[in-house]
Fold this sequence. Notes:
The structure is a homodimer.
Chain A: E1 10-14, H1 18-29, E2 35-39, H2 43-51, E3 57-58, E4 69-72, H3 79-88, H4 93-96, E5 99-102, H5 108-118, E6 125-126, E7 128-130, E8 151-154, H6 162-174, E9 178-181, H7 184-210, H8 215-220, H9 224-230, H10 237-246, H11 248-271, H12 274-291
Parallel strand pairs in A: 1-2, 1-4, 2-3, 4-5, 5-6, 8-9
Antiparallel strand pairs in A: 7-8
Amino acid sequence: MVLxxxxxxxxxxxGFGLIGGxxxxxxxxSNMTATIVGVDADPAVxxxxxxxxxxxxxxWPDDLGPDDLVLIAVPTLSVAKVIEALWDVEQxxxxxxxxxxxxxxxxxxxxESARAICGRLPANLVPGHPIAGSERSGVGAARGDLFxxxxxxxxxxxxxAPAARQxxxxxxxxxxxxxxxxxxDEHDRVLAMTSHLPHLxxxxxVDTLGRVPEHEAVFRFAAGGFRDFTRIASSDPxxxxxxxxxxxxAVGAVLDRLEAELAELRSLLEAGxxxxxxxxxxxxxxxxxxxxxxxxxxxxx
Amino acid sequence: MVLxxxxxxxxxxxGFGLIGGxxxxxxxxSNMTATIVGVDADPAVxxxxxxxxxxxxxxWPDDLGPDDLVLIAVPTLSVAKVIEALWDVEQxxxxxxxxxxxxxxxxxxxxESARAICGRLPANLVPGHPIAGSERSGVGAARGDLFxxxxxxxxxxxxxAPAARQxxxxxxxxxxxxxxxxxxDEHDRVLAMTSHLPHLxxxxxVDTLGRVPEHEAVFRFAAGGFRDFTRIASSDPxxxxxxxxxxxxAVGAVLDRLEAELAELRSLLEAGxxxxxxxxxxxxxxxxxxxxxxxxxxxxx
Lengths: 301, 301
């Protein structure tokens, strides 16, 4: 897809953090031409984006229309506020036909908020979630290739206009991503397992070890396994407290399962059941070796 | 240190897996000269080591003496069997004065076994543990630089001869490692936290997700965060079932702490307490950012 040149067909990115900035950087590095408009509550962020050459203009345009694409790239629980603003403004951005998408890591609450705000789900609102990220945050960490060879999940619903979905899919494909559609509830359940629970465990482990009497020795003798295991504990606390608040039921359900497994492992430990432990470890190793490549850089959701 | 040349001063490596093979490869790549003798229950392993140029001879030498250094590099629970053999053989290897060390990830059971077998702790037995490894195992994964810029913990006790400890420290320093002494119980407690518990969580998470109905989608949509978090779940099940069996009390104690933290996080989740979650995540992020470097390859204990 070639986004229309300046004048019509703007790409408005609301929230210029790691994801918003990386979308802008990716568009700049691609053969897509677009006027990139940045919106952010923090003027310093827009200054930084401008200095990085990622912005053509800033602030909500007065004259958004069907040619424009709006990407909401703010933390999960702030998406509703932006949708509300888009719905309320005199111009009625969501009513004017501009395609609007988001990048929130939990989709059900975004759809529920939009329904509550607009009274129905606007046909031009396409919920999306790029499965890419970094433990680093902010526009300073933006990378134009952040989404290359990563998946982007869209969760269109019955009301979603196919043309709007296609417009959003084209943008992500233009950034090198593979676009996959998924049901909203499946998305939130699967992400609770692959992304949210690992983050919870990493935060929990680091915080637990910070409280033990030997914590200085603990961090001094942490090796590569610990470094990789806890890398995601360096992620943005605001983004992640939003995600857990938004996806609490699905995270709670998979935490139940994990705690049952830990109880099983503990009973094997206490019984000194080496064969029982080995059976579980061998099963886990076989699963991971079969399904997870060790290749690739540090990107993550 | 320069190990004495062939004839006297052999380096006997018992257990030619990742660690044993990497010690041999590191000695070959260093300015240390040594006759490397390999001992392994599996003749195919010794063949592979020979083909890699890592062996000068194989099988226990008949004439071990004070100039020789024996490295026991078998899984934790097999160390005692080797010590028993060294004590029982007619030549009395542990009695003959050869320096003997091991690389087991848990130290207390090794010392207890040695005391039980020998009636006392031999002065020439130096317990050690290189904080380096890989989720790959076997001599085929051996790397001469595996220990470079890694720490090796020695846990000498009152009975340990300082000259024997120095001999072992010299070997590790010759391989580029930093040698640190630590009390036996502190070693086992700290490693339970930095290494054993993360491995338990990684094995538990992967096995848990393998059991959910959506497991295919789960592994398909796992991204870089999941890959790094679960890398250690690809570790050797035999090695790790030994470690957990040997260090069950210390692992159980830190698992208690982690489960208490998870209970706290769960109550915040259920209460929708976003600020409470953010406080914990921010504390974990600050700790990790301060203490753990993101640099370096995939090596781990």
